Amino acid sequence: MDKNGFSSFLLGLGVGIGIGMLFAPKSGEETRRIIKDKTGEGTDYVKQRGAELRDSAGDLVNKGKDAWSRQKDTLTDAVEAGKQAYRETVNRPPQSPAEGAAH
Q1: 8, 16 Cβ separation under 8 angstroms
Q2: Which residue of 60, 82, 89, 95 pairs with 99 in a disulfide if CB–CB is 3.0 to 4.6 A?
Q3: Which residues in the chain land under pLDDT 70?
């Protein structure tokens, strides 16, 4: 939401609360208590959801680290296999033309 949209939302929220208080069938003190309770419930909900999102993010980070580690190990193994194959090829004694034809 942009700045003007958010300002409009807050203005509408304030007007709605004001009208609700004017036409509320309960006393002002009781209405304030209800609003305070609902605000507390909303705060608790936001905190709970924030903690859940933080945990989910942590799980995703850990899964990403595990996947990266596995890929790194696979790449390291492939590089080592390539180096070993190169060493074996370089260190192999040269074949004579007759040996190459026999195979």
Answers
A1: no
A2: 95
A3: 1-3, 24, 26, 96-103
Q: Chain centroid to CA 40: how far?
A: 27
Return d(Cα 49, Cα 75) in angstroms, integer: 39
Give the per-residue pLDDT at 13: 83
Cα(25)–Cα(34) distance, integer angstroms: 12
**What is the reported pTM?**
0.42
Provide the Cα torsion 91, 97, 98, 103; round to 10°: 60
Element holding 93 (H helix, E strand): none
- Residue 93's φ and ψ, nearest 5 degrees, are -65, 145
Six token digits for residue 31: 């209405």
Longest dimension (CA), the chain: 109
Say if residue 31 is exposed, middle or buried (CB neighbours under 10 Å; 0-12, 13-18, 19+): middle
